[in-house]
Amino acid sequence: AEPKEVVFSKYQPGEVYQKVVHFKNVSGVSRHLRVIPLESSHFSASLENFPTPDCSIAPGMHCDCVIKFSADSLAIYEEHLKVLSHCGECLTVPLKATKHFPELNLPRTLECGHFLVGTRSTVQFSCQNSGGEGCFKLLRNRSHSVDALQIGAFTISPTNFFLAEGGKTDLLVEFVPSAVGSFCETFEIAFGDYEVHTFNLTGTGEQVNVQFIGLGYEHESGSAAEPEQYPTLDFGSINPHTSSSRTVSLKNNSNVDLSYSWRFYRPATEVPVSDGLPGPFYRKPPILVQSKHSPFSIKPSAGTLNAQDTINFTFFFSPQKVDTHIDMAHFIVLDAPPSSLPPNDSNCAVVSDHEVSVARLKAIGHALPYRVDLYPPLIILPQDMPVGENFTIPFKILNQSLMPVQYDWKRLDHNGLCSMIVNPPSGHIEPNTIVDCDLMCVGEKAGAFVECLQCSINLSDSAIFLSVEGTVQPPVVTMDVANLNFGLIPLGQSATLHFSISNRSKCPVMYDVQQAVTDVAFKDNEFMDHKCLRLSPCSGEIEPLGSVTVDAVCTPEAVGRLRSTLECHVQGKLAGQLQVKAEVQRPVVALDQSRIHFKKAFFGIKVERTLHLKNFSLISTRFSWNSRLLGESVDKCRVEIKPQSGEIGPDETVSISLCAEWKEVGSYDEVVAMCRVDGMEKPIFLALSSEVYGPSVDCSIVAPLAIRSKEVVLDFGHSNHLREPTSLHLKMTNTSAIAVHISFSINYFKPLDTFQKDTQTEGNRNIIISKHLLRNTENPATCSLSAQQKFPDKVSALLASRKGCCFVVEPSSLYLPGFESSVVDVTAYSDMWGSYKDKLIYQVSDLEPVVVPVTYGVKGCPLLFQTSATYGHSTARFGCHSTGDQPVDRELVLKNTSPNEIRINWFTFNLEEHDQKSVDLIHYFGEPFPPDDSETAMATACDGEGNESPLITTCESDKLSLVKVILKPHEGIPSKKPFSIHPKQLILPPYNHKKLYVTFQPSQCIFSSEEMSLESYVLGYISLNENSCASEVQRKSGYDVEPLRIDLKAGVIQPLLYVEFDEEDGHKFSYLASTLIEGNKVLQTSIKSHNFIMKNKSTSIFSFKVFTRPSSPFAVSVEDAGLITLIPQESKTAKVNFCISRDDLQDDSSDKKMFSSQLVILFSSGSEQVINLEGKITLPSLVVSETVIDFGTCLLGKPYDRVVYLHSSSPSNSLWRTENCSEIEAVSVYPSSGTIRHSEKTAVIITFTPREERSYSTVIGFQDIMTGVVKNLQVCGDVSADEYYGL
Question: What is the distance in angstroms between the CA of the first residue and the CA of the last residue of the chain?
Fold first, then answer.
């Protein structure tokens, strides 16, 4: 039914309203409906608009039911509509009628709040109609309404109003409390003509109630208190023109916000009044007189004190004069009638009709005068105060006031004797603080004085004074030196000194300087006569703060000492004394050594020495060397002295440079040089002697660990490699100071003459231009590259003499300065092994030649494999081959880079894994490897398989010679297969090349696994075809020389192809059986193909056939049905076909059917490569949703339908059909065949139309056409002619 519930919300009595309900058939058969009559007379129902003429509702169709409602009042009505179908099902739909009444959103209790007694306040309340529209009336005891409703202390307006649905209005309540306490009244509101609601009005009347907090006085306004019981706020004592503050907290204990203002009033006393009768006095109320120019103030002075709130008030005390100040601070509440005051509270007072004083505070403050003292109050200056000098006297200022002060010193007129200044002249002093000051005084005239200084204090009417007393002393005269020391005076000369006399005062003075008379006796000229001293000027006047210079001149007449005293008198008084000293001497000069011997000097080479000429006296003098020498060997040497002459100071040492040169080799006696000194009676003499030698050179080997020995040998060692130059370095040291020329040469193994000349020329040119290398240096990368390219040509040119070795000396000659050293490089080049001996000869200038032995041992192989560019060793790789392949050849080119003809004998060896032999014993007679074309034939021993072996050799001509035996480590077994080499003996001419061939035969390999790696090697024993060698070289051959080696590597594998399918897991086939379905038919067969590639990734050629085993249901399709041949890296494409047959699927009730086979690749060698093939077919699985359908008791001749569903439980689609049932006239199936897709269902309608009155039972078969599997459905039912079963 739609809707599920029928509701009438807006209705009036006497009117008729209707609504429609739709009934829809959601079952699979037609239905007949019948409405059961309603119990209520206010509702009625009727069925209309049937979709069929027989008043039945087909599946999915609907009919209408009209509901009518008529009310006789505004009450609430309820009913249930029941509809019955012919099968006995009952459908119920609720019916309701509800009226929406007006509803006012207003609290039941209207709180007006708290107000002061006697005040008139209006409170506004907002109300809204959340129900239906209506009129509202205010009633008092259900009486008639008026314009304004007054209830006790409350007045409400308006009394009548109309509100629509959602409408709003305001109720105004005026509240006038007449006393302290709560007020509560009741009134009613009528909601139209329907309901009356009762509401309450509440309000509270209060009096002013405030309280001071934290003053030790907790009295609340309104409580009884004795007169003059006020809280007191004492600010203590401060100085005038300063300020002090206090904080007071005041709390509002009432629930009413109070507007306030603070006011100060003078304290007034209550006067006791008597009426002349005996008895107690009574008091008049105090009169409030507002205080003017009060030193007190408050912040904030006015505002609002909220209900139950506390405010902190700050009181300030700022006095302007010295006195005790008292004022009363009143807390005035504004807009408060007198009735709001608490009764019997003496702290409260009425200020005006709308102002009352509810709290008061007594403020007391004392203003005291400033107090500033000086310490000390009197300063007495010291008695020794000279004129014009500054004196500083410290004193202190003590502030004993309550507040900080500012001070300022005033200068007074002085009396002309002394001027005074106070520092600092002004400043700031905190309370109970001391400030340090300085009094600076300057004396101007001599005499005693008394003065007074004035200090002014701000904000204070009185000042303080400082008294000063002192005396100024007369002027002072001083001398700048304490004594006059003339020092050392040469005899016959005079000396002058100066000293100053200064006037330290500001007045002129008279002075007089004289020698004091002494009693010193003159003995042996130890002391001189004081008359040799003269002063100028000796007396005069000195200006104020001025000075005068006095000259003292001493002229001695004999050697000795001067000791005297000078006295200075000022204005008749002794002011100071000066001591006078002088010394008179003659010069004394000498050399630090009088004889010089040169132990090793060289002819023609200058020798230098340094001498020192010292003055042992304190007098400067001059010296001079005589240019003429004295002695017998004067003509064989030349001496030069610098400086030739000069001046030498007191106690000074002068360096003298002596340069001597001898003209001949030998031993020389003394040669004397003479020096004269001014002031000395005798000259100074210097004697020279020497041993003179010629040139000499020392030769040594430059090496980190070179051992010094008498004989120098150039030993290059015995492990040098061919084609690798080896260098040794000779250090030539000139042990003399004479420059020499040295030349070098090699005795036998010389490089080619043309190259040697070029090298010498280049070496000489390098020596000449060595100073210009920095300017002419080329790019290092270019030079390095050029040298690398030229190196092979250079070596070939050096070894062009075909001796196998040469020694190159660079440079071949050199110039060596005195005591200098130079390194000579001796480089050995070789292209043939052997032990070489030679001589290096060097000659120094005209001296005898010196011979240095040279030894050089070379090892290595001069034979080059050009294919691998390696010497003595190479590798031949044959790749990987399969059995049956043709022999494979590798060509090797061997080059002889030596100047000798070389003969090579080749032998092949195999490396076997299980070879346990460790040592080979080799014995032979005579020459181990004779040439093939000589008369001496080589007889080779063979192993058991006929392979050649170099382990046993004989020679017919040397049968009677001794047997030679050699032991060597065992590596391989001699063999001729699968590798072989030819020719067996190879002769290489000097600097020429030849070819040799190595053959690999895969057919001779024996397999031990699918893939086998072969490793062998070939040894070539080297012999010299010419035995004629010079005595300077010795060479080994045969077994004494390391043989040539060629490593042989090859791989042999069984044939195997790389097989790859286009799809991942391409060897697996997965099919749905529904592939055979085409429309409504089932095909007999279906084929699915997978492509695959066969690729030959080996280096061999494979021939093979491809087929499947067994041949069904898999088959191979390829272009060449016969033998297929693939060369290396070639591929072939083929197909594997999987054939599905309908016969293979019949009578199979399982979900899947599996097939297997093998893909076989048969090679021409007989081996097989097998790949497994798999096939999977997913069969359809037909499922019927019901196994039994029971129609129950049916009406004869009336058709009945039931629905069953068919689906396939496997991914494969199913093609189905029904088999004939036994009750074909009564039972029919629609549809009778079809196709079921995966994840879909097919609805099959089973129609039962009974023709006879009996029990029916039959079986319907659903067959899958592809597999032939049948699913049965049993259908049964009873038949009756009673119409009851037709409803």
Answer: 21
* Residue 1059 in tokens: 């097989």
Q: How many other C-beta atoms are found inside a 10 Å radius of the C-beta of residue 632?
A: 10
Give the integer Cα–Cα distance in Å for 752 and 757. Answer: 9
* pLDDT 10s digits, 229-253: 678 888 888 888 888 888 999 898 8
Cα gap 327→266, rounded to integer Å: 5
The answer to whether 210 and 250 have CB atoms below 8 angstroms apart is yes
Cα distances (angstroms) measured from residue 411 to each of 375, 422, 439 = 19, 9, 12
Of 262 and 1007, the structure prediction assigns the larger pLDDT to 262
| Listed residue (1135, 1138, 1178, 1144) closest to 1156, CA to CA | 1138
The token pair at 280 is: 């107690």
For the stretch 210-222, pLDDT in tens is 888 877 555 555 5
pTM: 0.41
Q: Which of 621, 537, 620, 529 is nearest to 582 (CA)?
A: 529
Pairing of strands 863-865, 813-816: unpaired
- Tokens matching residue 1242: 């097919």
Sequence-ordered list of residues with C-beta below 8 angstroms from that of 744, at least 6 positions apart, any chain: 809, 811, 812, 813, 824, 840, 841, 842
Phi/psi at 586 (5° precision): -120, 160
Supply the pLDDT for residue 1267: 81
Give the rounded percent of residues in the chain with a pLDDT score beyond 90.
11
Q: Residues 948, 950, 956, 957: is their CA dihedral positive or negative?
A: positive
Cβ-Cβ contacts under 8 Å for 382 (sequence gap 6 or more): 391, 470
Cα–Cα distance for residue pair 631/622, rounded to 1 Å: 26
Mean predicted confidence (pLDDT) in 1045-1069: 84
Using the predicted structure, report yes or no on whether residue 188 has a pLDDT greater than 50: yes
Mean pLDDT of 1142-1159: 79
Give 625-656 pLDDT, tens digit per residue: 888 888 877 888 888 889 989 999 888 899 99
Q: How far apart are alpha carbons 551 and 536 in whole angstroms?
A: 5
Helix-then-strand count for the chain, H and E: 3, 105
Contact 100, 11 (CB under 8 A): no
395 neighbors 466 (Cβ within 8 angstroms): yes
Residue pair 826/676 in contact by the 8 Å Cβ criterion: no
The answer to whether 555 and 529 have CB atoms below 8 angstroms apart is no
Whole-angstrom distance, CA of residue 149 vs CA of residue 139:
8
Residue 693 tokens, joined: 């030698």
> 651-670 burial, b if ≥16 CB within 10 A, otherwise e?
eeebebebebbbeeeeebee
The answer to whether 1180 and 1210 have CB atoms below 8 angstroms apart is yes
Q: Kindly report the CA angle at 240 between 239 and 245, in degrees rounded to 5?
A: 70
Report angle CA 1122, 1125, 1127 to the nearest 5 degrees: 170
In 979-1067, beta strands by DSSP E = 979-982, 985-988, 993-1000, 1011-1024, 1033-1034, 1044-1053, 1058-1061
For residue 774, give the 3-state DSSP assignment: helix
CA atoms within 13 A of residue 1224's CA, in its CB half-sphere:
7
Length of the chain in terms of residues written: 1287
Distances 250 to 208, 314, 340 between C-alpha atoms, Å: 13, 11, 19
Asked if 392 contacts 439 with a C-beta cutoff of 8 angstroms, the reply is yes
Rg of the chain on CA atoms, in Å? 73
C-alpha distances out from residue 458 to 369, 409, 426, 455, 553, Å: 12, 12, 11, 10, 69
Q: What is the pLDDT of residues 531-574, one digit of tens each?
A: 788 888 888 888 888 889 999 888 887 777 888 888 888 867 78
AA letter at 520: V
134 beta partners: 163
Handedness of CA 649, 651, 654, 660 (dihedral sign): positive
